[in-house]
Amino acid sequence: MRNADIRRRTAETDITLTLELDGTGKSDVHTGVGFLDHMLTLFAAHGRFDLTVACKGDTFVDDHHSVEDVGIALGDAFAAALGEKRGIARYGSMLLPMDEALVLAAVDLSGRSCLRFAANIPAQKIGTFDTELVQEFFLAFARRAGATLHIRQLDGENSHHIVEAMFKAFGRALAQAVAVDARLGDAIPSTKGVLV
Q: N or C: which end of the chain has fewer CB within 10 A?
């Protein structure tokens, strides 16, 4: 079973998260940040990951700590569920359209943390959600998962569409990267023999 149970408790957040890589896309997400709940539900559905998230955070301050820490916990969960990453495809990418928005997401589960994020999200807020937190979420994930992650907006005018396309593309790219490649057997997908 490729799964993980994560508990992260700080002075700012208290998070429990479970992840099943070989799931059906079902989710139960309650982060205290409504827009993030919506995005993670889409992420799980498009990646076919089973995901539960419960976060109690200091949203009376703002949503930053909750969004960042959920990104950290999700990155930790992928790292734990993948272990040495034996037999996985390692790479994944998706060019995803959503109405007028077009987003590229590409991932390498290399063990090296890197985020390249290029987007022009027109609105500062989607509902009450600060759109600058989108990049913070992906940065936190990449750092903790040990992933190289590229997210690039190629087109789009509607902020909700742009960010939604990002999370859907992210889920689909990760689904490709974590997929088991039968040709690899139990091998680590690197000529170095290790992914770190």
A: N
